[in-house]
TrEMBL record:
Keywords: Hydrolase, Metalloprotease, Protease, Zinc. One of its GO terms (molecular function) is zinc ion binding. The keyword Cytoplasm does not apply. Belongs to the peptidase M14 family. One of its GO terms (biological process) is proteolysis. Its cofactor is Zn(2+). Residues 21-346 form the Peptidase M14 domain. SUPFAM superfamilies: Zn-dependent exopeptidases (SSF53187). This is Peptidase M14. SMART domains: Zn_pept. One of its GO terms (cellular component) is extracellular space. It comes from the Bacteria.
Length: 383
């Protein structure tokens, strides 16, 4: 399938009921009711606060793929793309449907509904579910493990979102999409199992390079058996970490959503048509490792802070849930000369002072919706 075909498929099947960063059970339950007309939709467990955790089963093929999203409740971009994918398979006349003769997909759209509701990474017991893969102290962790054991997948898709701080390598290119074939032992051995996952990632990267050149990264593969990806990989199930990141100006992650959808489609097509043995995994090693090179806003060459020296001011947005909406609160993180650090938005003060919205010099941890430069207000928050 050509990239243009995937673009058309996304446009025709984008789930318009889902938008932005705040996605909860309340948003997806009406959509699940519709999906139940054709797919198997079931409640597979309950969260700490007794909110339902849903599973969706699609297809009838022998290759089984387990996918779960919003293990971290505030990482919702991959969930939006899942419902775009569901829509793509819903139409009986859709030419993607032969794939479902090769696959059975089992999808958990929101594993952590309490965290999704509160817009937090952790669950209601303040536990990071992605560090609970061994101890299994939380009901959500048990739901995922039981699903893994009963479904017996051939592949796992571990779906996440990442902060705006990441660059694709030591560059000024944002890591808009990132992947990882997690380690399965302390030595981070490149096992045949990992190579299978690496081959699939290489295919997705090849497609994405046509859309976001030099903006795909991979994460450090340091082994942590408490992480779910490392655990499932260690059980010899090829596991792929997906990370939805930042594209210029796209704080709602709507373009990133399309890129994740493109990754889903291209990987599913590839797996359905190949007996993957990892021998074509070499391109994975060409993908740069993520660095932390970005802040949301950098104001360069600011005067009045350090005698006659100029400094840079680095600002990072704090995502805050307010009245059912996510607001981006600009917070000053650094006042220094920022070398090798880039802003998704940059301003040049040209030696002038920069003041906060209270008319005073900025300090670390200041919150400001705008700054004053040359007697002009400059808005910091994304539109």
């Amino acid at each position: 399938m050509q990239i243009e075909d995937i673009k058309i498929l996304f446009k025709n099947n984008k789930e318009e009921a889902l938008f932005g960063r705040y996605i909860t059970n309340n948003n997806i339950e009406p959509l699940l009711d519709k999906l139940a007309q054709k797919f198997t939709v079931e409640t597979i467990g309950y969260s700490v606060l007794n909110n339902p955790i849903y599973g969706v089963k699609i297809g009838s093929g022998d290759k089984r793929i387990l996918m779960w999203s919003q293990m971290h409740g505030n990482e919702s971009t991959t969930t939006k793309a899942l419902f775009d994918l569901f829509n793509s398979f819903f139409d009986d006349k859709n030419y993607l449907n032969p794939i479902l003769q090769a696959y059975t997909l089992y999808v958990i759209p929101i594993l952590n509904p309490d965290g999704a509701q509160a817009y937090t990474r952790i669950n209601a017991n303040e536990v990071d579910l992605n560090r609970d893969a061994q101890n299994l102290t939380q009901p959500e962790s048990l739901v995922l493990r039981k699903t893994f054991e009963s479904f017996k997948p051939h592949f796992c898709y571990n779906l996440h979102g990442q902060r705006t701080i990441f660059s694709a390598g030591n560059t000024n290119k944002s890591a808009t999409v990132s992947f990882l074939s997690p380690a399965q032992d302390e030595a981070c051995t490149v096992t045949p199992n990992r190579m299978v996952a690496m081959e699939v990632i290489g295919v997705m990267n090849d497609v994405l390079q046509n859309l976001i050149p030099n903006q795909v990264g991979v994460y450090d593969d340091a082994f942590n058996i408490n992480c779910i990806g490392d655990t499932f990989q260690s059980q010899n199930v090829p596991t792929i970490l997906f990370e939805a990141g930042h594209f210029e100006g796209d704080y709602d992650r709507e373009y990133t959503r399309e890129l994740i959808y493109t990754s889903y489609i291209s990987s599913l097509i590839y797996i359905s048509g190949h007996d993957i043995d990892g021998k074509n995994s070499h391109s994975y090693f060409d993908i740069p490792e993520n660095e932390k090179n970005f802040l949301d806003v950098v104001i360069r060459n600011v005067g009045g802070y350090s005698n006659d020296s100029l400094v840079d001011i680095g600002i990072q947005f704090k995502e805050t849930l307010v009245g059912g909406n996510i607001e981006f609160v600009p917070i000053v993180e650094k006042i220094e000369v920022l070398v090798g650090v880039y802003g998704h938005k940059e301003f040049d003060a040209a030696g002038e002072k920069v003041l906060g919205d209270d008319g005073k010099k900025l300090t670390i941890n200041n919150e400001n919706d705008f700054v004053i430069l040359k007697n002009e207000k400059i808005a910091l928050i994304p539109k």
